[in-house]
Amino acid sequence: MANYTVRDRDSELKDKVVHINRVAKVVKGGKRFSFSALVVVGDGHGQVGVALGKANEVPEAIRKGVEKARRTMIKVAVVEGGTIPHEETGRCGAAAVFMRPASPGTGVIAGGAVRAVVEAAGISNILTKAIGTNNPQNVTKAAFDALKRMRTKEEVAGRRGKNADEI
Description:
By secondary structure, this protein is α+β, with helices and mostly antiparallel strands.
């Protein structure tokens, strides 16, 4: 497991490698190894993306993962105080990630895979709990799912055709 933070030249995106997995394929002449890299990309201001890159060398797998993560970026609802607007549970496979807003000064209370997603999104005060499996791929996707479901009070009011004070 390796952790890298890379600065992009054209923008202020931060890349974080969450997990690198070596995969062996058995062929006639022996074993052929390849690598998969689970990467999180975020700007620290409410945008985050998650992807898996696969290649025969680690740097190439990381590069592919970063490219895919940039394409899958979403806008996350971050409210005043650097936290999330409401409680949410994200799911992927056997993994579930519960997220709860925290008061200013709490910090990021999260495990490795969830922490990478939350920090890349620019959330500074949050309480999380990963439930079920500890598989980094599914835990990261579950955290991404929970952030994707977040809605601010203003967004909900707009959908209902009301103003934020009525909700």
